[in-house]
Structures are given as C-alpha cells and as structure tokens.
Amino acid sequence: MEAIVAFVLLSGALTFATPLIIQHSRLLKAQRDYRLALDEVSNAIDRLSLLPADELSGALTKLKPSELIAAKLPGAELQGELDDADIGQRLALRLSWQQLPGSSTSVLLATWLPPASQPRVEP
Amino acid sequence: MTVALKQHRSHRAARQGVSLVELLIVMSAATVILTISAALVHRIMLAHSKARAFVDVERTSLRLANAFRSDVHQSISATATDKPLAGTAFLQLELPAGQRLEYRREDGTISRVLFDGERTVSREAFSLTPGIELAITKDSPSLIALSISSPPAATAPEDRVSPSINYAVPVTLHVEAAVNRDQRFSGVRATP
C-alpha cells in the first residue's frame, strides 16, 4: 500500500515537472533569440548610420536579416522607417520573427541621425 | 463459539509478521521507485547545470556585445589584427583624451584592458566556452565586426577532445559597430 502511494506521488511529481522543464528550455531559447535579435538590429543601425543621407531611404527598402539571423530565427523580417525629427532624422528598425508557431515576437530600436545637411563624422 | 474464537485469535497471532513473498514484493516496488527517483534527480541536476552554463554564456555574450559596441562608438580610430597570437591584442581602439583600449584573447576568455598612456587603468574578463572561434574584420574603414562562434560539435568519438568541450554551451555572437559614432552630432549647431 505504501509503495503504491509513493508511486502515485512520484508519477504526480513527474507529470507536474515535465511541462515546467519544457517551458524552462523554451524560455532559455527565447532569451538567446532576443539577444541575437537585439544584436542584429543594432548592427543594422550601425551600418545604416554610415551611409550618406541620400542613400538611406533606398537602403531601408532593401533591408533584410543577415544569414545568421535567417538561420537562427524562423520567419525573420527586418523593416525600417525614417522620419524627420527636431534634431535630425529618426531611424527606427523592427525585427520580427516567429518565436513559436503562431506567435510573433519583435524587437524595435530607434536612433537619431544628424540632419541631411550635416556631413557624417568620419574617424 | 469458544473454538471459533480460539481459531480467530490464533490466526491473528500468526498474521503479526509478513511473509517472504510480501517482503520481496514490497522491496521490488521500493527499488523501482528509488530507481525512478534517482534518475529523475540526476536529470534535474544535469538540466540545472546546463541551464546555469547557458545563462552564464548568454550573460557574458550580452555584456561583451554591449562593451564592444560602446567602446567602438566612442573610439576615434581602430586597428584590428586578423590572426593574433595568444594573449596579444586583436583589436586596439584609440579613445579621446589619450586613452587606449585593447581586446585580447586567451583561449576561451576575452580581456578588455584600458590604458591611460602606459598605465593600465582597468581590466575586464569575459569568460566564454573554451575552443571558440573568433574573427575580427573591418568591412569598411569605419565598421568593425566581431564574430564569435563555437566549432561544430564532434560526431565521431575519436574527434572528442575533452569532456569539457563536449559539454560546452555553443556561443553565437556577431557585433558590428561604427567607429566614432558617438561624435555624429558634434558638428550640429543648436538652433535657437
């Protein structure tokens, strides 16, 4: 009788723990995906910030994720938006991907660039 | 009536112990439960160790990416070395006010050393997985790219170098940063 009770308790613990372990592993993967997405958007912002102002709009239409991100994040899409701001131009990039089938996640970063009349600072 | 009572008492007296078969059944059941419990505890401890190693690598990668990007942004010039020797700098950054930053690699650890003239001001270590592959490139004069990745996992048993590398968490890091980006508004005049 005691053995049966112990077995039932153990089975219950296993049933309770298994979804938690799976959820935890998904959480770790989501953490890595988020960091990769954050780096990708930051990299794209740095590349775009080096372009002359008149090439920015054209470059935004050709934006696409790198091969690394395309391989790591399923359904990754990179979109950019350029707006005029009081201190120059506001560049916003959004990277979206499928975290789980049917659920989309995105990272949005924005930066401010000097106005078009201001030449880019070279090292 | 008296005989039946005596038989019942003698039967109860005989059932005060357990038979060998019952004992064996209980011991077998307990053994099965203990085996399952031990396997469960082992798997949980393994998962805990892997999760901790994973979080450590991720946290270090994030810290390194932030430090690298910030340093390159505030630097005024950068010198990259394609294939540095162990312990030597693979990236040198000139900072304003005469300071200098060096990024060095020693196996699985990347060090960030800040100099003021010849004096070492600070040193920071980023411990990643042993056996990482590191590449530093200059895609353009102003764009520095740092890539860190783990070698492909060994498939054949003879390819296994050491248990620590087999257990290692894979590292994936790619950071591109523009030199002197922090100064992009330096020439902009404030409008009244």
Low-confidence stretches of chain A: none
Helix content of chain B: 25-40%
- The spatial strand order of the largest sheet of chain B comes to 1-2-3-4-5
Describe the sheet with the most strands of chain B.
Answer: 5 strands, antiparallel
> Rg of chain B to the nearest angstrom?
32 Å
Give a count of the beta strands of chain B, DSSP E runs of length 2 or more. Answer: 8
Order of helices and strands of chain A: HHHEEE
The biggest sheet of chain A amounts to:
3 strands, antiparallel
Q: State which percent range the strand residues of chain B make up.
A: 25-35%
Greatest interface: A-B, 39 and 42 residues
First CA to last CA of chain A: what distance? Answer: 79 Å
Roughly how many Å apart are the termini of chain B?
Answer: 117 Å
Task: Describe the model.
The complex is a heterodimer of chains A (123) and B (192). In chain A, 51% of the residues lie in helices and 27% in strands. Chain A has 123 residues and is of the alpha+beta class. A three-stranded antiparallel sheet of chain A has the order 1-2-3. Chain A is rod-shaped and about 85 Å long. The termini of chain A are far apart. Chain B has 192 residues and is of the alpha+beta class. Chain B has one domain. Helices cover 38% and strands 30% of the residues of chain B. Chain B has three helices and eight strands, in the order ααβββββββαβ. The longest helix of chain B is centred in the first third of the chain and has 55 residues. Chain B starts with a helix and ends in a 14-residue tail after the last strand. At the A-B interface, α1 of A face α2 and β8 of B.
